[in-house]
Amino acid sequence: LQSSSDSSSPSSKIHVVVVPLPAQGHMSPMIHLCKLIARDPSFTISLVNVDSLHDEFVKHWVAPAGLEDLRLHSIPYSWQLPLGADAHALGNVGDWFTASARELPGGLEDLIRKLGEEGDPVNCIISDYFCDWTQDVADVFGIPRIILWSGTAGWSSFEYHILDLLEKNHIFHSRASPDEANAVIIDYVRGVKPLRLADVPDCLLASEGQEVLKEICIKRSPVVKRARWVLVNSFYDLEAPTFDFMASELGPRFIPAGPLFLFDDSRKNVVLRPENEDCLHWMDVQEPGSVLYISFGSIAVLSVEQFEELAGALEASKKPFLWVIRPELVVGGHSNESYNGFCERTKNQGFIVSWAPQLRVLAHPSMGAFLTHCGWNSVQESIANGIPMLGWPYGGEQNTNCKFIVEDWKIGVRFSKTVVQGLIERGEIEAGIKKVMDSEEGKKIKKRVQNLKILARKAMDKENGKSFCGLQGWLEDLKAMKLDR
Ligand code: UDP
């Protein structure tokens, strides 16, 4: 499929093969990036998924405006990775990455070779940071790899310091006790402020499957140096010292490129779950700034007990709430009886959906605060809409994001424990809601996040935004490379 406005043959275009990590939080920014590339008629894009996901993806795929010409390909993979998988269904992350590195390079090589034989040679690979195996494939064909880093620049500095963290025995050893994790201060990760061991990305502290993960992380960390560009889905004014440090190590190829979703005025994520847009009508009749939005992203789960404490707190808070309850959110399922009672009692107070049009929810005038698991997309979307946060991290690097939110940027509050560390009782949840929505501190938080909203939008300004101009810069670089070949 070619753009009707451009009659040039496919091979005269710059053909980029895009390899996302098959998870919602990584797919969303990658698709936004594709939309940005597709604006330039010099490019043609092939999106590569793994087999099990591809079928589901194609079934639900409605090309968003601007991506009508996107080609969809798949490569064989033995793991079933439905996008609707919860944290448990995904299994051991270490095994998953090991299988990817073993199985996927051959499939991608075959695909790139085939495209070349069909007269449509591939000029570069754009892939998620965690698909580091794509660098070897790029090297086989002598083409550049461009990394999309879909977390904070701060997290990338942790990845960059993996050997130091290991040497000091701060990661991948048996978990420190909560007291120790709070007492030990990590002050040698350059570009980020000193923080407690407890705030180092959870995925690096992981004890489960740690030997496999440890090896993967050690191998992955230096691969970033071989990439032509590293596009970071964050913005300079939010993390200036980290961007400065990483650029001093990796050179000007390490660039702020976010918030990517702001580039696209449609405010739509490409998702594989049906979005319930009725909630927007419900929001239309709520008071401005009054709604508490609760979402745990696409993977995090809650115990039945925790779910009930949260429900009890929401009810007691009397705040209008919009709550995303994915079908698999509660491990083992919630009790119908108490859930139905909750729904009945709060039918005039709240609205429940199984998946929300989050970008439009956060932009709605009735939004007040976001109780979030601190996945980076959710956090950045909240910032770019000026919405204060109540952070309740689950896994990955969400604990680090939460630390940044509360201590560095001061645009939210948090509970005493993460979801996986243990039960938070309803009293604490209710107090957190009141703090972020009703207190004097809450007002200051709101002011700060409103300021960051302005900076986020400035970064993506199409005239002279730092992120936007950086993104144009690497597209021009690719064009120049193609001319040179
Ligand atoms: N999202 C959405 N509707 C929902 C929940 C989430 O559109 O009901 C989107 C959200 O806007 C974000 C992504 O899904 O872009 C979740 O990514 P995040 O990094 O926040 O969390 P993850 O799912 O990776 O844990």
Automatic annotation (TrEMBL):
Q: Which EC class, in a word?
A: transferase
Cell inner membrane: is it a keyword of this entry?
Answer: no
So which domain of life are we looking at?
Eukaryota
Quote the InterPro entries the UniProt record gives: UDP_glucos_trans, UDP_glycos_trans_CS
Does this UniProt record's set of keywords contain Transferase? yes
The catalytic activity of this protein is classed by the Enzyme Commission as 2.4.1.-
Gene Ontology MF, one: UDP-glucosyltransferase activity
Keywords from UniProt, A to Z, are: Glycosyltransferase, Transferase
A Pfam entry, by short name: UDPGT
Family per UniProt?
Belongs to the UDP-glycosyltransferase family.
Q: What is this protein called?
A: Glycosyltransferase
Organism, per UniProt?
Selaginella moellendorffii
